[in-house]
Structures are given as structure tokens and as C-alpha cells.
Amino acid sequence: MTVYFEDLSPGDELEFGAYEVTEDEILAFAEQYDPQWFHTDPERAENESIYGSLIASGWHTGAMTMRMLVDEHFSDAASFGALGVDELRWPNPTLPGETLSVRVEVLETRPSESSPDRGVVRTETTTSNQDGETKLSMKPIVLYARRE
Amino acid sequence: MTVYFEDLSPGDELEFGAYEVTEDEILAFAEQYDPQWFHTDPERAENESIYGSLIASGWHTGAMTMRMLVDEHFSDAASFGALGVDELRWPNPTLPGETLSVRVEVLETRPSESSPDRGVVRTETTTSNQDGETKLSMKPIVLYARRE
Prior knowledge:
Two copies of one chain form a homodimer. By secondary structure, chain A is of the alpha+beta class. The first copy, chain A, has one domain (5-145): Thiol Ester Dehydrase, Chain A. Chain A is built from four helices and five strands, in the order βααααββββ. Chain A is elongated, with a radius of gyration of 17 Å. The relative contact order of chain A is 0.24. Chains A and B meet through helix 1, helix 4 and strand 2 of A and helix 1, helix 4 and strand 2 of B. Strand 2 of chain A pairs antiparallel with strand 2 (79-89) of chain B.
């Protein structure tokens, strides 16, 4: 059942998730971690923001994406976590009432040179709303355990 | 008082923040957004993890970094938010009991070609603990308003 380094190959694709974005959660995250007015003040955001609406913190969109990735993939994977992320982008703001899903395509798999029990997997990971509009894209670099 | 695009120049440096990382907050964030066992189970993390300790979700380290950035910079800046982040890295795990601070160096400033009221600023942003050990580094790309 567990996904190891050897189980992932370039071109593999996964699609999953149905994360409902609520105004309450946008506000709670932003008040704690990103209290900029366009994330915390719905009325001012509607009237003054270039986005015309309250929008989620980009870090919140990343966190919601991570929750879908854990529920549908990492909870059954032998992963040591991520070394980093390249090309993280927020091409469109995440809005209250949207439903997010995730698409992962494996770009590259490479055994670690320094640690023979591990391998590095690079993916293109995209988070979209119910209409297929991209909210977040990124290229994470994740460490997985190798089979014996 | 407000920081506009024109107030930022390549080579500018800012240093600030003293964010105390608690086990409770690591657990709360991870249970909601990144429920992998090395973020949610202190005992198992201590005994089985390659890190030898409970560690914060990388998205949580990003969120804590954002909070320091907002408190000390964006709360007084005419910013429209970030287009994205390049080269996000977590070279060392964030541990309970650490105190984080942030260092920002402006790399590049560029007026927007499509929107003359805006400019793009690229920085190298680094989050370190009280001993100067780097926990997160990244190159955010942020939109600022231009002065009239």
C-alpha cells in the first residue's frame, strides 16, 4: 500500500481533492498569519482591493493544497518531507465559496547521492477551483524512502 | 510612512522579528493543514523520524515568516500581495522552542509594463532561529503600488 520512491515515475499523474474554501477559514488563517486587510476585512476588500473581494492568503492556499496532498497521497507514502518548492505561483486569488482540487504530475525522480536509502521526486503540482481556474502552481522537491 | 515601490532599492536590507515557536502551535497547524506524523506525533517523531524531533510543517514556517513580514513591513506598505515565490527552501527543520527572525534583502525592482501604477520587487528572504541557523529561504515576487 505504501508509496515508495520506486513507485513514482516521470509522467505519472494524480488528481484529487474537494476542499471547500470558507470566508471564516480565510479570516482565521489571515488573522493569525497574514493580517493584511485584503485577507482580513471583507468589506474593505470588496470596495478597495484590486481583486474586488476578500481573498485567501497565498500561504493559506498552500496550506489547503498541502492538506489535500496529505489526505490523498502522503498519508500512504514513505516520505521524509520536502526539501523545497520551485516556481510557486498564485496566478488567481482564492475566493470564499470555491472548491479546490489538486493535480500532480511527476517530472523527475532521482536517487539521492548522499543517502542511498532515499530518493528525490520533483513534481508539477497545480491547485484549481471548480471551474478549472488555476489558483496555485508549484514544483515541490520531495524526499521519499527507497524500498530495501 | 507608507512604503511604496519607489522606496525600495536593490541592496536594501531589513532584519526583524522574534517569533516563538511552540509545540502547541506546531501541532495545531499540522492537525489542520499537514497531518503527517512527524508534524503531529511528538513521541513517534522523537523515536522514528530522521529529524529526531517533532518539526513544524514547512507551510507553517512560511506562515510564521509571513506574520513577521506583515507586522514589520507589509502593514505599512502599499502592497497588492505576491505573484509568487522562487526557490523556497527549508534547509533545516523548525523545532519547538526556537525563536525565529527574518532578514530581507532587495534583489531587484522593476516597474510593471502592463500596469503603470504598480511595480514588482524581488527579494531574498531568510528565516533563521536564535543561533542564526537558516530554517527557510525564498525569493518572493511582490507587487507594490507606485507613488503618483
